[in-house]
Amino acid sequence: MSQHQGRHFLQIPGPSPVPDRVLRAMDMPVIDHRSSAFAELAKAVFHGCQQIFKTAGPVIIFPSSGTGAWEAAIVNTLSPGDKVLMVETGHFATLWRQMAARWGIEVDFMPGDWRHGASPAEIEAKLKQDTAHTIKAVMVVHNETSTGVTSRVGDIRAAMDRAAHPALLLVDTISSLGSVDYRHDEWKVDVTVSCSQKGFMLPPGLGFNAISDKARAAAKTNKMPRSYWDWEEMLKPNAAGFFPYTPATNLLYGLREAIAMLLEEGLENVFARHKRLAAATRAAVTHWGLEVLCQEPAEYSPVLTAVLMPPGHDADAFRKVTLENYNMSLGSGLSKLAGKVFRIGHLGECNELTLLGALTGVEMGLSLAGVPHRAGGVAAAMSLLEERTHSNASAQLRVISS
Amino acid sequence: MSQHQGRHFLQIPGPSPVPDRVLRAMDMPVIDHRSSAFAELAKAVFHGCQQIFKTAGPVIIFPSSGTGAWEAAIVNTLSPGDKVLMVETGHFATLWRQMAARWGIEVDFMPGDWRHGASPAEIEAKLKQDTAHTIKAVMVVHNETSTGVTSRVGDIRAAMDRAAHPALLLVDTISSLGSVDYRHDEWKVDVTVSCSQKGFMLPPGLGFNAISDKARAAAKTNKMPRSYWDWEEMLKPNAAGFFPYTPATNLLYGLREAIAMLLEEGLENVFARHKRLAAATRAAVTHWGLEVLCQEPAEYSPVLTAVLMPPGHDADAFRKVTLENYNMSLGSGLSKLAGKVFRIGHLGECNELTLLGALTGVEMGLSLAGVPHRAGGVAAAMSLLEERTHSNASAQLRVISS
Amino acid sequence: MSQHQGRHFLQIPGPSPVPDRVLRAMDMPVIDHRSSAFAELAKAVFHGCQQIFKTAGPVIIFPSSGTGAWEAAIVNTLSPGDKVLMVETGHFATLWRQMAARWGIEVDFMPGDWRHGASPAEIEAKLKQDTAHTIKAVMVVHNETSTGVTSRVGDIRAAMDRAAHPALLLVDTISSLGSVDYRHDEWKVDVTVSCSQKGFMLPPGLGFNAISDKARAAAKTNKMPRSYWDWEEMLKPNAAGFFPYTPATNLLYGLREAIAMLLEEGLENVFARHKRLAAATRAAVTHWGLEVLCQEPAEYSPVLTAVLMPPGHDADAFRKVTLENYNMSLGSGLSKLAGKVFRIGHLGECNELTLLGALTGVEMGLSLAGVPHRAGGVAAAMSLLEERTHSNASAQLRVISS
Amino acid sequence: MSQHQGRHFLQIPGPSPVPDRVLRAMDMPVIDHRSSAFAELAKAVFHGCQQIFKTAGPVIIFPSSGTGAWEAAIVNTLSPGDKVLMVETGHFATLWRQMAARWGIEVDFMPGDWRHGASPAEIEAKLKQDTAHTIKAVMVVHNETSTGVTSRVGDIRAAMDRAAHPALLLVDTISSLGSVDYRHDEWKVDVTVSCSQKGFMLPPGLGFNAISDKARAAAKTNKMPRSYWDWEEMLKPNAAGFFPYTPATNLLYGLREAIAMLLEEGLENVFARHKRLAAATRAAVTHWGLEVLCQEPAEYSPVLTAVLMPPGHDADAFRKVTLENYNMSLGSGLSKLAGKVFRIGHLGECNELTLLGALTGVEMGLSLAGVPHRAGGVAAAMSLLEERTHSNASAQLRVISS
């Protein structure tokens, strides 16, 4: 069998494939984390993160998974008994809610069908009802990795403004940052939570909190025991390029390189590429006669596409077929979607031919697994990508001639 | 100037130099953390950790620094208001105490002079006085990285047994594990805290908790809010080779390789090597006429040696000289020892010639910095190492001939 | 533009993509080439090479490109003025002939149309005519990298046997070894010439000569000045695991790993995989309405497919389009085929999805470059691969149940 | 035993240790050697080589060992029956002579005692006698790797000028280039031969010829069969950044990085560092009461020191002791020096502490092997290095204040 021969196609929605440049940057001797050489590295990385989060404020980097960055956002801003508004956009929103509950937070969890993003209108309505301002924070997941639905954070901020509600806005950008348009300062987000292994194209191991002045002020008075995640403990040494405890040095080497790559390509180009690849994926899925889980076109995720299996067909059996026959990993359906959807990641170090190679694996896998579908999905994706290339080429010509 | 030419001598007491084999093992594509290939990796790593911690119980691995593993030990076993016994062995014991205090723990902090380890006799006395068993835990640092003093954990356990006190025993082995003899099960330690960047010879980014049944039972009833660090959340998926949130996959690749290296050399040989290199270092220091900070020969650290500067000489000025002229990093004095001591790390990927190269840098640096000393320390270290090699060779001959 | 984003598709017929395992094996400190550790490496590599060349005789490894290995074959076996029979299979056969001429060899160069392999029947006829046995060697290129035509070396040997002619048989397997069925001993080849950067999946830098006893005997009496390439100079130290001059140590590390990968997959599986991928490529080309350069189905190359451009369309302009828009390198037409063909490499570290990704790039590129073609080539390739997967699966079932 | 633990000290006079930066630069995917990206790499490398060889003329890079570059120098400039003048400086001069003889060159081999460099005066005398100008070339080894003697090429050139003799000057800089002051153009050298694994700090696999116009003119008329090594075949494609056959791409990546490192440090600083480390090594050797093989202070090699063993002691037995007990490789005595000398390499990626670490290994090894010596050699080396650091520091101060 050839299934383990050649390059593995890692098409899960994160960890995303790590570029060779980033792996090689990490593959260097560790240095003294109290040296001036380290301080230079740290400052470069902090500055770069600000460009990616689009913030002039501090970005805190924890040696942790993204889950740790969730916890940091909670323990630095909220107090036991505080009430927050969250939206059931999918599995990860549900997990974040569970975490909040463990910390004694009272969560008003607005129900969702896992096929739509957080509704700005419903949030606005909730906040307007809360005239006593008992809601301390609105917590939303920007890109639901479990469903491939991207909530409109800019619109949610506008809704909060219309409601003139003082709640903090906490946003999970774990699978969107560096891949999907995101603006910490412009959208007045108070805590942006993220991690290393998605748009940053790094191995897992770093958690991020970008924080507003308002969040930092909240941290001064909130009541929640903490030490490892404490922002102020971080911010003091960070200012000089140091950390209060041993940082994950080699991941920071990689982060510096990954940020350089994102800025070399240009963030807007990165976002456009993700949208283009996502559109091609949906063109294939639709052609196959399968259904994209996300039902709101304005909320299609640029980083992954969750696909519903036809009734009577198990998504995990299908994924096993693509793994064993075509050396490709697809994402599974999580919790209530288990067996019902599979997820195609198209984020980070991904380009046209990698995506199309992956889609041929999906199409052949459907066939091999006996899943009813209309052949030609890959061709549909190719048509869409060709068209975009043509119009890009024209656009460039226009730019050049103008 | 040649100071940045050639191989850097990283002689701080951690992060320790990462062997090429380990770096290269990490320099590989990340894989799906929900795949069977990942589960195999995780199981191999869990099994290997048990051999290093010398335990038949579970070892939990967090994506975190060692500080996170400290926090995990506290929040899983103690409750706000609990009383614990700690010993002021140095900077890190003080930091751990500070962390406990932040979590609402009442710490009975037995004072120390930073030149001795935790006293088994004093602990025994304290515990015997505590007839009501209000002390919930004894928390000690095995190897104080700030002072180069190694507390006798086996003796402390014996003292606790003599006192017939039910307190938990929590031990920080951050800079000792994998370098100094340590026995989680035999010494009935309840939580052993450790990390990746010292004896494991990995970059920073993993925190460890090895836990006893008693500790696990305590975790079932203690009252401390937690989510990220929760043991039970980890143990369930760990049993199948998975993690409740995205693990630091590439560090796990490195951990598998590092454990293989430790077992190939043989743990007892690893311990003997560290003791031999430490003895050579002290021979040099003593010859120079400088003072080793640790005052109790039975507590000399095998992984680092802290050296007192003669009055009127600044340790950091001296360290700057060795860094700029000889491309070597030495450890600084921490908190109340700042400027007064420098620390020589001799742990992990260290051998005779690397250590002696480092000691020549110290001796030339003392000269260059105008620190009074008697020349010939390196020669003293060489004599000691030669002797050991001779007697090793004889010992081997005996083994072979018998 | 996104053309340089994401993984580059290196679809030239060599150098082929180097697997991560091989790159990492090379990324290690160089060792003393006169040490016993080196001798172990060398012996392992010599033994492994024998398995790949399928010979019990010696395999000589030069620090050189494949061109150097060509020269070694000539200068060790022939003398100025010797007559040899060569076949004009394409660009590389022509270059080898040129080299022979520079060394004073008289070449009977049987003309060819660059679309067929060397004809066993014509060689037989030539040899039968040569009753005086003035022809000292038959020199053929197994797989013509410039045309994608694989000559039938086994049949050529049979033809030589039928002619009962004592000429040496020298074969260039530069782009076939490790990818296409090849049997040095069984086919009584006298010198097999090869290199590192094709089926061995290594960077360029090693040249190989597998030699028969007859070749070695010829080397004892031939008259050609030589030193660097002298076999006997190599064979003496090689026997003990050493080299007469400094070998390319790090490439040898990689070679050991690459051989391990080939043997893990199984050579016969490797050959079958290459044939399957080549068939899929031709299915696409044929569907597009383009012409495969090779005109003899029994001689289709498993490692590359050369494709004729429709008249009026420049192959290099097309290749520029795929490089700039899809980050994929295709091979150019060489010498008289320049601009007229492009070549698709599908060798070494290549699997189904990588190949299909590449074919989508070709299909979109044809469209973008305005080259007339029938859409659907990728789908045709997918159909063929699916079928093979199905029948493989059935074959395996049969094996298992029997 | 700890002999294989920790970093290996590779103290042979080449291959020299490869810096991590260089290894990592090589650890990248191979690219199309006919692409514009490759041409950029090649041009950068050619330009960089000119700076290292100090020439405005072409530098040719072969995929070969240094031995291949020797052969290239011969076959491009000389004809069978030509007479050349060579000097028996040691093992490698003898090997080069042997090679010349194999190519039909008549060598006037001026005898030497392997303890002195080539004598400018004797060369001058020989050339003056040759009034018929039958000597076509003077061929000398700049740094004899087998003896640690560096011939004075500038003086040899002056001698040739005084003799007004038109012979070509061919110089082997295999172990000197990039470590010892060398000036291809200023010294009017016609062919400078070198390789990758010494001063360039790369793995073995590249051979170099820097050539003068006069050498190139000679190549137009000389009579020596050649193909692989032919300069003109190289120079044509080289001008556009290409090669006539597949180049060793990944070594070229490394070469670009290595040149950058040499220029960052500054060539004159690199030379000074090598002289300083060599002086320290000799200070140790002399203190031990051992004899440096080189007898002419003006010819002490900056890159290695060959040390004579006391009578009755075998150098290889001693080397075995340092390898097995201290994980350090030393160079062996070659041909007539076998068993009589050991060689300490101190070139390339070497600095003070690495050298001193190595010297402690030598001193302890002498003791362990029972070789009579006076202890304190390391201390003598340290004294010398300290002094130099002091005076460097003063020199810098003067520079800064002026």
TrEMBL record, chains A, B, C, D:
Can you tell which superkingdom this protein's organism belongs to?
Answer: Bacteria
Q: One MF term in GO for this entry?
A: L-serine-glyoxylate transaminase activity
Transmembrane intervals:
none
Q: Where is the Aminotransferase class V domain?
A: 14-321
Which pathway does it take part in?
One-carbon metabolism; formaldehyde assimilation via serine pathway
Which residues does substrate bind?
343
Q: Which cofactor does it need?
A: pyridoxal 5'-phosphate
Q: What class of enzyme is it?
A: transferase
What residues bear N6-(pyridoxal phosphate)lysine in this entry? 198
Q: Which InterPro entries match?
A: Aminotrans_V_dom, PyrdxlP-dep_Trfase, PyrdxlP-dep_Trfase_major, PyrdxlP-dep_Trfase_small, SP_NH2Trfase/AEP_transaminase
The record's EC number reads 2.6.1.45
Catalytic function, reaction form = glyoxylate + L-serine = 3-hydroxypyruvate + glycine
Question: Which keywords fit this entry according to its UniProt record?
Answer: Aminotransferase, Pyridoxal phosphate, Pyruvate, Transferase
- Protein name stated in the entry: Serine--glyoxylate aminotransferase
Q: Organism source for this protein?
A: Bradyrhizobium lablabi
